[in-house]
């Protein structure tokens, strides 16, 4: 028995889950988190406002931006 030469069905190309805009938001969130950790660097005066208040807020803001970037359509 001869086999028929049937063309292979190509599945339609699947779209990416994230768009270009989502990747930009993710990159922004990574940069903000890195800036927050850089604000924590230093060995003088561990109880400085920048280290115990400002830096954690910046890091949390970076994580919030990342969360928004994941959930944004």
Task: Describe, in plain words, how this protein is organized in 3D.
The chain has one domain. It is built from 2 helices and no strands. It has helices at residues 20-39, 49-71. The chain starts with 19 loop residues before the first helix and ends with a helix.
Would you kindly provide a brief summary of this structure?
The protein has 2 helices and no strands.
List the helices and strands and how they pair.
Layout: H1 20-39, H2 49-71
Helix content percent band = 55-70%
Residue ranges: pLDDT <50 for 5 or more in a row?
none
| Cα end-to-end separation | 52 Å
Helix vs. strand class: mainly alpha
Keywords:
73 residues, mainly alpha, 2 helices, 59% helix, rod-shaped
């Amino acid at each position: 028995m001869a086999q028929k030469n049937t063309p292979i069905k190509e599945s339609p190309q699947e779209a990416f889950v994230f768009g270009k805009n989502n990747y930009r938001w993710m990159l922004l969130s990574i940069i903000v988190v890195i800036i927050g950790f850089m604000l924590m660097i230093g060995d003088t005066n561990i109880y400085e406002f920048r280290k115990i208040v400002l830096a954690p807020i910046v890091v949390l803001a970076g994580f919030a931006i990342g969360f928004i970037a994941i959930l944004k359509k």
